[in-house]
Amino acid sequence: MFQMFMRKLQDVRTLSGLCTVAEEAARRLGGGAPGSEHFILAALELPDGTAARAFAELGLDAARFREALSAQRSDALASVGISASATQAVQSGSAPPAGPRPALYEAGPSGQSLVQRLADARSTRAGRSLLGADVLLAAAQENHTPASRAFRTLGIRSEQLVVAANRSIASAGGRGAA
Amino acid sequence: MSLPQHAPDPGNTEDALAAVLALRQMADELEARAVHLALLRGWSWARIAEALGVSKQAAHRRLSYLQPK
User: Fold this and answer.
1) Is B1 within 8 Å of A67 (Cβ atoms)?
2) Cβ contact (<8 Å) for A90 and B10?
3) Distance in angstroms (rounded) separating the CA atoms of residues B52 and A146
4) DSSP-assigned letters across all residues of A99-156
5) Mutate to test the interface with A, among B13, B26, B52 (most CBs of A within 10 A)
6) How many Å apart are CA A167 and CA A28, to the nearest integer?
7) Which residues of A touch B14 (CB under 8 A)?
8) Measured between beta carbons, which residues in chain B are less than 8 angstroms from residue A75?
9) HEC secondary structure over B40-52
10) CB atoms within 10 A of CB A94
11) Could you point out which of A24, A112, A134, A140 has its C-alpha 20 to 30 Å from the C-alpha of A119?
């Protein structure tokens, strides 16, 4: 009973940490509310290391994922004849201030959907803590987000992401996840 | 960059919608830069709002964080 309470408390901490880091990643990558791609970047930094390990198994890291996010965005803009450097055309001498910090965690729609999927999957995690690789499992269910397009650019299919994430979770379990 | 080149086709639904999202994000970034520059050059909120095609209240509510300190 006490263990369950402590696990739930840890999960709340993990989730709030994810939201905070996702928010910072979104602001650094051009502003706007955090989407699922920012939650993936946040998961890669979690101390449990399961997301990073799953990525490593797929030959990925945060830098390559960021590169792929940028590439899928450039591709999308190029398809309608716009060069991605168009935003650099306006030189204001100094970078504009970062957007205001929202009062509560305000994820964008794809971020909110991902968090909802994490909550919905609680029963499948019966008895264990929320881990970074769970974010990858939730993201693997997407089809049309920038994150899913980035994975496709990298030649990674959803099934591969799921297998790598589950393997990482299983190996963490043996050592008693945080 | 060693990533494979994918030439999206705007006639393709998935690619067209991805282009809409990318354009929206780009428009937001461009807006932040352009409004910041306008404020640095002394533009009033009324003038900025007129150029953006929105009310002065809406412009200020959304973009007041760009005011140079």
Assistant:
1) yes
2) no
3) 27
4) PPPPSS----HHHHHHHHHHHHGGGGGTTS---HHHHHHHHTT-SSSHHHHHHHHTT-
5) B26
6) 31
7) 144
8) 5-8
9) HCCCCHHHHHHHH
10) 10
11) A24
ipTM: 0.77
Confidence label for A27 from pLDDT (cuts 50, 70 and 90): confident
pTM: 0.86
* pLDDT (0 to 100) of residue A93: 58
Mean pLDDT of A164-175: 86
Higher pLDDT, residue B43 or B24 = B43
Residues in CB range of B28: below 8 A, 6 or more apart: A30, A31, A32
Residues of B with CB under 8 A from a CB of A: 1, 3-10, 14-19, 21-23, 25-26, 28-30, 32-37, 40, 65-66
Tokens of A8: 């739930």
